Amino acid sequence: MKAHAFTLEPSSFHLDHFQIGLGTIMFLRHIAIVTLCAAVATGATNNAAKECWSRVSATLKPIFSSDALDLCTKDLAVAAPSWWSAFSDDFKQLFNASSSFFTTGKFTTPALNAWNNSKVCQQWYVGVEDAIKKVDPPCSIAVTNATQVVTSKWNASISEFMQALDQWAAEVSQPNGVTTKAPSTTANAPSLTSSAPVTSSAPVTSSAPVATTAAPLQTPTHVDAKVIESIPSTDQFDHDYVKRRPMIGRLDTTSDMSEHEVNTERLVTKNSSMRHVEGGWPKDVDSAEQNDVQRFRKKVEKDDEYKQAVKFLGPVAERGLKQNNTINIYQDYFAHMGEPATTEQPSAKGLAVFRDPESVRRTVSKIDWHPESPQRMAACYCILNFQDPKFVNSRMPSNSYIWDVMNPNTPEVVLKPLSPLCCLRYNPKSVDQLVGGSYNGLISFFDIRKSGSSPVETSMIEHSHHDPVYDVFWISSKTGNQCCSVSTDGSMLWWDIRHLAQPTHRILLSDKDGQVLGGSSMEYNTEAGPTKYLVGTEQGVVLSVNLRNIKQNNGIVVYDTGAGKHHGPIYTIQRNPSHNKFFMTIGDWTARVWCEDLKTPIMSTTYHESYVTSGCWSPTRAGVFFVTRMDGVVDVWDFFYRQNVAAYSHKVGDVPLSAISVQGNSQSGGKLVAVGDSNGMISLLEVSDGLAIPQSNEKAAINGMFERETKREKNLEAREKEQKRKKATMDEGKVDELPSTKDEKMEELLRTVDANFLNMIKEAEDTENKNMEHKTDSMKSGDEDN
């Protein structure tokens, strides 16, 4: 049987290791009984010994039978007290003597004598033999043999053990005389070692202990307490005491996490095209050189194949020419019928979105369509808010763009002025030229045929505007090189693009009291007069400038400054394309229609819930105009349909809208609407045919409505003047001197005016009916001829 080691410590019991050999399984349980008795001897109480045995029995229960364990428990209850009285004194003497080993490294003579004279071993094996006889008689022979072997070899084992301890103490001693602590394999207190034969019939022949287990017994040295140093309390250093500031620390046991976002690279697409003007030429022939072309043509004409081709194609071309001369392929058979009345509900749909390529979000300040092509439009971008935070974070980009409607991904032309453009206009006589007004007051001239992106000419800053240029127009001239600009600095300047060093003419915008008015918008239309200008101011007042009356207050006429004016800046002012005498202004929460003959508006829309920002007339329909709002909605008003509510409202986005422009002229177009917002995005809308195609007799009806409203306003104005004159007369105390017939004459005058007004309406209706009858008769006569 291999060794079974049990370590015994005071008040504790540990089963460190055990291995079981063949034929010795019953011997192990008796060793456990003796071991418990040893636990009592080492200082544990009787109850502690019982508790230790209960733990050991629980450990051994899966191996041994429960009946044997119960018998061992009963024997322990009887044997433990008697064994305690027998060898407790010997054990105590042995423990006290062996404590000197920790100071000298050797067992003293009293300790060795106590160990040799101890009858502990005899008592152990007597108890083992008695217990085995009681519990398991068949194992008594094996126990007797084990007892004899242990008794005979005990003294020799103890001597060899002490020699080993002396040798170990010599090896671990340090040169300075300090000995190291004994390892845990050497007993600080006596260790109880049980040995058994390898088999039940073969005794152990080794002279050394089979196995030794050690449990250190810490024996503290008693030292009296004494005071080493004492410092009494004092307030001498109180002023040097600095209270430590509380510090807040944070501990986080969670693992560090990192968040990553991955996005695939955006594919940027660009449309490119090639324009082929003339037929293909050989590589060595330059089509731009007339001499090369003539030389090549003469060479080809001498070729025999060319002559044969001309002879073959001549009759074919001749036949086609004769057909063209016989039939008018451009004849319009239904010109006299007019446009059919439409019942379609007004609507609009989005076609494309043009985004500002710059990372900084800029406002679309102006949009201008190409005068001849419905596929191109120019747009300028600028941040008009004073001290906008975007100026602090980064420098504002200055690029403006010319967009192709068919390619919304990339601008066709990039305009790079010195300062961001606030306004931009195409030259109606030379569509490759543009003029723009900058944020710093400069005027820039662009010719995309020459310079491409950079301006050809730029005005000098000392002779330019001192505020942003909010509007610019090309004016009528023989050469088409003159333009006019307006700014909030109160000046209106005329320029010649061939000499932009300084303006050709300057006017200071002011009222009759001399107060300077800042211009925020402008309108110029050659059909209304080459010398007439309309200016909207940031004070909400409308100005009419006529250069023919330049001597009278610089030709400036100030419109209503009372209740009829806007409550904020006028963002847009534009004449009606069909009736130039009437114009529209956009400001505060309303859009108002004016007449040049009156200083008060003749019509006005209802107040919107949101602030209006811009507007424009439809180029094809006289009674339709568009208004943009701060809440991202475009309102379409149709005065031919109704005047109190917008005909259609379209939600473009959630950001404020800033600019709007409709493509086309009086002959065509009117369906494409470009709307810009404050984020630099231009939305291209297509309105329904009902909002673009002129209605039957629409121009006459709109003109009649405007004229009636004008006369009504004139009558109200005359009545107001009369009331003011009458009030002034009464204030002077001359009321009694006035003849009694004065009131009767006034009433007679008003009745006459009302009668004339009604007669005029009746005449207009009669004329309209006669025209309709004439058209009907013409259509009938045409049908009879056919």
UniProtKB/TrEMBL annotation:
<keyword id="KW-0677">Repeat</keyword>
<dbReference type="GO" id="GO:0045504">
    <property type="term" value="F:dynein heavy chain binding"/>
</dbReference>
<feature type="region of interest" description="Disordered">
    <location>
        <begin position="176"/>
        <end position="204"/>
    </location>
</feature>
<comment type="similarity">
    <text>Belongs to the dynein intermediate chain family.</text>
</comment>
<keyword id="KW-0963">Cytoplasm</keyword>
<keyword id="KW-0853">WD repeat</keyword>
<feature type="region of interest" description="Disordered">
    <location>
        <begin position="763"/>
        <end position="786"/>
    </location>
</feature>
<keyword id="KW-0966">Cell projection</keyword>
<dbReference type="GO" id="GO:0005874">
    <property type="term" value="C:microtubule"/>
</dbReference>
<protein>
    <submittedName>
        <fullName>Uncharacterized protein</fullName>
    </submittedName>
</protein>
<dbReference type="GO" id="GO:0045503">
    <property type="term" value="F:dynein light chain binding"/>
</dbReference>
<dbReference type="InterPro" id="IPR036322">
    <property type="entry name" value="WD40_repeat_dom_sf"/>
</dbReference>
<feature type="compositionally biased region" description="Polar residues">
    <location>
        <begin position="176"/>
        <end position="188"/>
    </location>
</feature>
<dbReference type="GO" id="GO:0036158">
    <property type="term" value="P:outer dynein arm assembly"/>
</dbReference>
<keyword id="KW-0505">Motor protein</keyword>
<keyword id="KW-0243">Dynein</keyword>
<keyword id="KW-0206">Cytoskeleton</keyword>
<feature type="compositionally biased region" description="Low complexity">
    <location>
        <begin position="189"/>
        <end position="204"/>
    </location>
</feature>
<feature type="region of interest" description="Disordered">
    <location>
        <begin position="710"/>
        <end position="745"/>
    </location>
</feature>
<keyword id="KW-0969">Cilium</keyword>
<dbReference type="InterPro" id="IPR050687">
    <property type="entry name" value="Dynein_IC"/>
</dbReference>
<keyword id="KW-0493">Microtubule</keyword>
<dbReference type="GO" id="GO:0036157">
    <property type="term" value="C:outer dynein arm"/>
</dbReference>
<dbReference type="InterPro" id="IPR001680">
    <property type="entry name" value="WD40_rpt"/>
</dbReference>
<dbReference type="GO" id="GO:0003341">
    <property type="term" value="P:cilium movement"/>
</dbReference>
<dbReference type="InterPro" id="IPR015943">
    <property type="entry name" value="WD40/YVTN_repeat-like_dom_sf"/>
</dbReference>
